[in-house]
Structures are given as C-alpha cells and as structure tokens.
Amino acid sequence: MVVRIGSRGSQLALAQTGLVVDELQGRYPQVEFAVQVVKTSGDRPSASLLPLGEGVFVKELEEALQAGAVDLAVHSLKDVPSRLSPGFVLAAVLKRGDARDVLVSRSGQRLSELPPGARIGTGSPRRKAQVASLRPDLLVVPIRGNVDTRLRKTYSGDVDGVIMAAAAMHRLGWEDRVTEHLPLEMFLPAVGQGALVIETLSSSADMVRMVAPLEDEATRHAVAAERAFLRDLGGGCRAPIAAYATVSDGRLFLKGMFLPSEGASPVFAEGAGPAAEAEEIGAALAKKILSKG
Known about the structure:
Elements: E1 2-7, H1 11-27, E2 32-37, H2 59-66, E3 72-76, E4 88-93, E5 101-105, E6 119-121, H3 125-134, E7 139-141, H4 147-155, E8 161-165, H5 166-171, E9 180-182, E10 196-201, H6 205-211, H7 217-232, E11 241-248, E12 251-258, E13 267-274, H8 278-291
Parallel strand pairs: 1-2, 1-3, 6-7, 6-8
Antiparallel strand pairs: 3-10, 4-10, 5-8, 5-9, 11-12, 12-13
Helix pairs in contact: 7-8
C-alpha cells in the first residue's frame, strides 16, 4: 500500500512533512509513505501575500486532495483558513511545538537592546503591530521568502534583524541562530503557530482512521479556541490578530490581541473555561475584544 502525502516544497515544509512521515511509518511499517511536492500560490514570487487572500499555502494542496493526486496533506496550522473548505477535514492535530516567535539579529542584540532606527524585517502585520507597540523607535520593513532567505537578508545587512516562528527554527535544527525567544507574555503568536495538521477529504474514512493516533487532544482544543477567535473577528492569516491558548486540568486559558487600525495600540483580552467549550471561549473573547472598540 502506498499513501501519498502532499507538501509544499520549502525546506521547512519538507522537514515538517518528514516529521509526520516518521510518526506514521513507525506505526505502519508495512505502508509506503511517498511525499509529493505541490507548489502553492504563496510559494510564487510576489511583493506581498495580502492581495492573494487567505489560504494561499493551502488551496493547491486541497485541489490535489480533491483530484486524488494525494491522499493526505500536511500544513502548518497557522496557514489554514479559519473556515475549512467543504468536503475537507483536519483529521489530526499534532502535539504543538514551541509557539513563540524568535528574533534573529545580525549583531546578536536582543529586541530591547537594538539601537533606535534598527530595521526589523517581517511580512506579518501581527508582528509589525507588536514590535511597534514594544519598540516604536524601530523601523519595521517588509520581507518575504523562506526561512533561509530571510536569514540571508539579515546576515547580508538588508535588515538588522528578523522575527520568525520558533518552531520553524527548531524543526530546521537552527536553534543556534536564534538571538532571543520572545516571551508569550509580551509577544503573542499567530493563531495555531507551532502546530502541524494533517488534512484529508472528509469522505476518506481510511485516511482519517490511519492518522487518528497522531492526534493531540489538548492541542486540538487550544487551536480550536484560537481559530474561533480569529474567525469571529473576521480575520485571516494575514490580519493583525494574535492568540494563544493553553489547556490544564481540563480548563482552557486564552489570550488574544487585535490591532484595530494602523498606528493604533493593540487591544488585548483574556478568557477561560472548560476545554470542551473551546470554540465558545474563542467566540466570547472575540466579542469581548470588539466591545473594546
């Protein structure tokens, strides 16, 4: 039996898909898992991802699933739209990795130590908003490309530092390049950041059963709250919205951030409740944020 797993072609995407293949291969040694690279809209050169809309790293993988070209698709959850396309299911949410953001600076200085006017590279409105809130004297400049491309631009002097996902650096084995892990208390991550998911067709019962052992229930609840928060604020993966949820002893704790407009101060709010009511907690927190204007 051969199971075809769709993946983006970036170094990070292939490393993450490799982690999933290793997990599945360990459980099903009799099955051959073949990785198939699918080029997505988000992988094509563009000045900005904003005009491309939501799901730019997912759409073509879903098309490959629908066409029967692949059986499963592996995504970074933060790339998956808050409303899943009809006919698809997130069959497994894997145990979350490090959800934090990191700073990689050319000088080795931390965010608080960088001189006024230092250039921080990021293509994320969320990161831009939080950097501006913490260090309004820094210059945030747009930057695109894979992790290695952004690092190259940092070391070559195009920017003085770049902010990226900790999980990406860890999964690529590049922890030694990290200058600083930005604390969750002051720098909230993207919705779903650090979590990997396996998507398939909702009609593919065999595939759903196969990947079920990789499911992590606590992560499923946490990201469900975050995604409900994002969805009810009407935001996509490019919106200046951040959220992070944790689950402990059956209770879920959620903190969210929203930037109402360019130049405004971020609005923060917190919520909590039974983990089984994750989506309701996320929706309630979105309502709370909106009530703050």
